Amino acid sequence: MSLPRLVLASASPRRRELLAALGLTPPVRPVEVDETPLDGEPAAACVLRLARAKAAAGAAPGELILAADTLVVLDRRILGKPAGPDEAAAMLGSLAGRDHLVLTGVAVRDADSSAVAAAVETTRVTIAPLTAGQIADYVATREPLDKAGAYAIQGLGALFVERIEGNYSNVVGLPLPLTRRLFNELGFDLLALGDRA
After folding, report:
1. Which pairing describes strands 99-110 and 63-74: parallel, antiparallel, or unpaired?
2. Which domains does the chain have, with CATH numbers?
3. Contact yes or no for 4/63 (Cβ under 8 A)
4. Pairing label, strands 63-74, 77-79
5. What is the Cα–Cα distance from 111 to 87, expressed in whole angstroms?
6. Which of 34, 69, 110, 146 is catalytic?
7. Which of 46, 72, 104, 168 could connect to 149 by a Cys-Cys bridge, CB 3.0–4.6 Å?
């Protein structure tokens, strides 16, 4: 019996890089999903709903679709991608010197059986105290502008992350241990899918 083809339903270069480090280079098929949280929707429910919706969109026979959605949460307030430099600076100012949570919903869908395995990973991150000048300098690099929470732990933002409690790859955008477990739930070995990617 041949293995299904792994497809990544995400345009995130960070997720591609994490998979590439495992020797996996699946085709990328980003999907358009309204990522607006529902009124009163908890962050964990939101990322799980969005990951499931992305995994369900556009799956073709013979494919395993991997999808994910990541949010940064501070004081129960969701911080998405900043709209521009001013919002990035404001986000960083609110995160500075404090703990926040990074939540990633991951969903894997077997297109042939329509079976879905999905779960949420949560990591606590502590950002160092930052001066207005440090924030302005970081925003000027443009790195924060397309990142949830306005920082990249795998980039220059690592200079400001004092501590994490939980999985590092979750903060990057795809918790790899959880991802492996979800594939196992559906009866697949993630690493065995490399030959078909």
Report:
1. antiparallel
2. 5-196 (3.90.950.10)
3. yes
4. antiparallel
5. 39
6. 69
7. 72
Cβ atoms of 46 and 68 closer than 8 Å: no
Dist CA 85 CA 108 (whole Å): 34
- Which residue do the tokens 């990328």 mark? 28
Letter string b/e over residues 132-170, b meaning 16 or more CB atoms within 10 A of that residue's CB: eeebeebbeeebbeebbbbbbbeeebeebbeebeebebb
Which of these, 179, 106, 105, 102, lies nearest to 147 by C-alpha position? 102
For 44-65, how does the pLDDT look when each residue is reduced to its tens digit (9 = 90+)? 999 999 999 999 986 889 999 9
Structure tokens at 65: 């679709």
Mean pLDDT of 2-28: 93
Phi, psi of 127, deg, nearest 5: -100, 140
Give the mean model confidence (pLDDT) for residues 126-153: 96
